[in-house]
Amino acid sequence: MHLKSLTLKGFKSFASSTTLKLEPGICAVVGPNGSGKSNVVDALAWVMGEQGAKTLRGGKMEDVIFAGAGDRKPLGRAEVTLVIDNSDGKLPIEYSEVAVTRRMFRDGASEYEINGAKARLMDIQELLSDSGIGREMHVIVGQGRLSQILESKPEERRAFIEEAAGVLKHRRRKEKAQRKLVGMQANLDRLQDLTDELHRQLGPLARQADAAQRASTVQATIRDRRTVLAAHHVRTLSENLHEANAETERLIEEREYLTEQLEEHSGELAEVEEELRTALEDAESARTLWYRLSAVAEKNSASLRIAADRAQASEETAWLGPDPAHLLERAERADAEQEELDEAVEIAQEKLEGIRETVAEAQDAARQAENEHLAQVRAIADRREGVVRLLSRQEAASERLANAQAEVERSEEAVGEHTEELENLSEELAEAADELADIEGGGEELRATAEQLAREVQTVEQRAEELRNQERALEREIAGLEATITGWQERLRPTDGAARATSAAEEQGHAVSTLAENLTVTGDWSAAAAAVLGAIAPTGVVTASDEAILSALEGSDEGRALVIEAGSETKEKAGWRLDAALPAGQWLLDVIEPSQEVAAALNALLVDVVAVADAAEARRLVAADTRLRAVTKAGSLFGPGWFAAGRGGATPAVELAAKIDQAGADVAEKKEQLADLKASLDAALETTAERRAAASSAKAAVQEQRARVQAAQHRFKAAENAEESARRSLERATVQRNQAEERARQADEELAEVRDRLSRVQEPEEQEEPSTAQRDRTAQELTQAKAMEMDARLQLRTAEERAAATRGKADNLRRQARQEEASRKQHEIARARREAKRQAALIVQEQAERVGQRITDALHRAQESRTLTEQAHRQWQERMRQQKAEVNKYNSQLGAVTQRAHEAELKRNQAQLKLEQAAESAMEQLTMTSEQLLAVELPEDFDQATARKELKQAEKDLNSLGKVNPLALEEYKALEERYSFLASQLDDVERAREDLNGVIKDVDNTILTLFVEAWHDVEEQFPKVFETLFPGGSGRLVLTDPEDMLTTGIEVEARPPGKKVKRLSLLSGGEKSLTALALLVAIFRARPSPFYVMDEVEAALDDVNLRRLIALFEELRKDSQLIVITHQKPTMDVANVLYGVTMRGDGVTRVISQRMKPLEAG
């Protein structure tokens, strides 16, 4: 077995596809440094499964892909294919030639192939491990690997021997078994926990199952006894119900007979009833008219108040602005004053011009006198100084004069510019002053108007707030009353059985109402009516006759209800009474006004009830006639030998109905008041809105006026500052001009003086002294002239300021007069509009007062009519009571029968209710209907007491069992099955764990055998190889822990000849390399490999040691193939094939091969 070829594509520097044809023996790869020789070694390691980027001399695995060089672009993948000759069958694969390929892409994906078929890295490693090639790659000795071998830990050196011995696949098998064992242990622990938990649960659950079995037997006994007792109870109640039905039917027949007799004697009341109805309608009409007139009176009062408010709010306000005529007069006076001031300015200017001429003449005279005097003095001096100096001074004076004249011209231009600017700014200042005066003139009137409107707004807002408070108070009262009515109505709604009856009637399409809604109690007899009707009013439902309602109630368990079948008879037709004399009081029916729907039923219910004043009268009345019942105003009800008094927690329905009617009337009255109040409030709000809008407009005008004033003041101030700045600039320019003129004048005078002195120097010499009289006289005249000029200037400045202050005043006053005239016209229009509104309000107020008087008269007449009609109505009521007394004797008999029938019906209902309750109880407890219970046959010797005793004993036995889990039996069976299943699974897992432990033990024995054999062979070969490389020296291998051959490490002891040291760190570089080679060669001899790769391992050796190493190479090539990267010529000499590796400027490696005949040794 040997390597046949190595093909590289895109691997490191091998950009192009390169194939190395390898042969048995020694294959030497030679070439200059950096040409890519070591890349061949990296390619061999990489294709055989190397995973470490550092081992391949890179930072990351992607570095093995050609990265580009020169003009060659980077490649996207690297591929290496190694072809192995397997003709001897050392590789466990049925091929004589095996091609291993590894391919890697830049995205990190890798591919492996064996003879072109996809494979895994593990497949390649296992394939090569049988030939002694493992993850440590001890057959490939790269650069720096020798030092790593010596510096590695003892345990790491052990890995080289294990790899050579083929232990790697056994260790991998052991590790896989250990991982399975760890996962199996977790499952085993989980199964053990579940089994223990189920075992703990089985005991209590078994006891619960036993209790459930016994409870089932006792429950059957209880059900049997309850069924027999319920059947007996239902049978007894059915018999009672049959007897009650028979009695009720008999009394109903008797009551129908008496009713027919009563109807025959009730016709006489028809005429009285008709008259009473007419009187009632008249009384209602009079009452309605009085209510309407009262409402009209209230509305008229509201209109009167609104008109008064509007008349007061529209009172005239006087004009507060200035008089336009007065402003025009002030403008005329301002024009006259302006003309006078302008004339004064002209006079002052003329006077100043005259004085200026006088000052100029005085200045000329003084200057001439001064010059003459100086000329005479200087002429005397100049004669002494000489002419030369005078000529020099003349030239300098001429130059100064020219400069001064140029400066004067520039100053004149500046003065002109500033003068023009000052004139423009003065005009702007005058315009700003005029604008400010115009704006300030109209501000006072606007402020006065705004203040007046603000006071009016405050007044009308106070009135509106008062009306709003009254409105809110009324709304709160109405809301409170409506909420109270709603609460009372909720309490009047049908509940329980009445609700069921209501629902049934509505389903049939009938109108439904309550009894309390169909009657009205007059006077203060509400408590009395509530005491008598209190038991039936909440459950009383008034609707049409329908059997569906009866069926719905009979089939419902929501409670009982009283259903009043709606009739069409009036109270008078149905109003018969008992034939009984009333020594005191009146019939309760006489104070109740029922609707037609309930008149007949209510008459039957209350025919025997008399309304009396107090309890004493009630007792006397029922004692005199036992057929009667008496009720007091306080609500106490009396009968023969009994009475009912007191009030419950809730207000009776009849009283609630009366309270609802009264509260409804109060709500209607207060709503009318609220409507009137809203009308007054709307008027007040309208006035408020008008005043607020006017005040807002006035305020906005004032604010606009203030803003205009501020803007005008700002413009005036800016113009004033600009004018002042321009004035100062003009003054500075004027001063500079005057100074320049003065310098020019001085230069001119100096030049004239020098010229004069030159002329005088040339005149004959005179010895007399010059006179000063003329000079002094002219100087005094000049001083007086300048004083007069200063006075004239002050007068002119004062006149100009006064004229400037009044300029434009007349125009401002005329403009203000025009504005005032326009404002006065607007005020007159607004005043006329307010006056019209006030007059209209006064007319409405006057009309409302007259209408109010008429309404008061009509209201008085309506009150009288109301009193008369109500009195007539009471008289007809009295006659009605007298007529009804004739019918009462028949009512008495019917009342007695009705009472007995009512009692019989109550008994029947009670029997029916008890039977229904017994049936419901049986259905709930036994799930048996009453028919099923009646079908139960009772024993002939049935004893209810004995059956109850047996039931009690069974219930006692069931209670003694305590709380029973009815599902305990099923749960126990399911839990027991699960426990058995988990126990069997636990046994299977434990057996599997024992099997894995046996596998691990067998693998350990195999590893131990292979390693021990390999160790003894390597231990035997190392001293021989060491002595070959170090003649006269000694070396050996030592186990770090001989007692534990599975984990022990290996130490290397080496003593070169002539040295006593054994520590490897004290050896030289060459000695370390030879020692490492000795260890590797010992391994190679002990467990030969098909091939070995050496990368410059002899680089640090001298010639002597190199020859010794070559001798070992020649010995190794007898059984193995050697691929050697070398620079040494002796090594090349023993090679069978030479591969020359070169790299040109493009950075791509190329290979040239040459078959060699090795030199004979010696």
UniProtKB/TrEMBL annotation:
Main location: cytoplasm
The organism's place on the tree of life at top rank: Bacteria
Gene3D superfamilies, per the entry: Helix Hairpins, P-loop containing nucleotide triphosphate hydrolases
Binding site residues for ATP: 32-39
Short name of any one Pfam family annotated for the protein: SMC_N
Job description of the protein: Required for chromosome condensation and partitioning.
UniProt record similarity statement: Belongs to the SMC family.
NCBIfam families in the cross-refs: SMC_prok_B (TIGR02168)
Protein name: Chromosome partition protein Smc
